[in-house]
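[audit] Reproducing an earlier prediction to check determinism. Same input, same settings, fresh worker. If the tokens differ from the archived copy the diff job will pick it up downstream; this log only records the rerun itself.
[audit] input (222 residues):
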Amino acid sequence: MKLYSMRDTEQLKYEKALEYEIFIKEEYGFSKEEIKKATCIFDIWWHIWLFSKWCRKYNKDAIIHYFEPIKELYNRAVNTLKNDDKIILNNLWISTTEWSWKIKYNNEKTMQSSKYTSFLNPKWKEINVNYIKLSTYLKENNINTIDILKIDIEWMEFDILPSFSHHERCIIQNLILEVHILDKTMEIQWDNIYNKIINNFSTTKVYKSWYREEIFLLRAKK
């Protein structure tokens, strides 16, 4: 019989809640039609691969590029998704750099690990993870179009989004982004980022979080 620690029990509880949000409530349901037609999907850090599996429910043929920088979670993804040869698993994080760097890993709520700390990430230990630039990854994999780019990277969106070149923004057909407005500085930064988004996409829509007003989903499409 397997014995679970208090941390394991808490983690399982959060993972079950996330699974309910993705598969039952279908938090990303607004993107179903685009996912059905997609040939190339980027899932940038969704820690326990639920978005990738949910996409597969509606599209059996798309190539999904899955990015998870934390080794423990990446190994779990490999275990779960190893029979799907159309999901490319990367033990990397898309960011503005291309080297190993520290991340604040919350092993009680792994989905809230981040480069930064806030009330969302009060308990953590630093670990090293590997990063790669989007431009480098696109070139190495000969990718010219991203049909769906989904980013949920715990307020590091304020680092990565401004770093995208005009070319990179142009090849992204649909953007699904979780945004965390945790202070006034981020609010100002978000205004600047949002202005760039609306200049590159024909429609945008905001979906408020069920839990906190500081967090919301943005959908942008060409």
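[audit] rerun output stored. Observation attached for the diff report: The longest strand covers residues 125-133.
[audit] end
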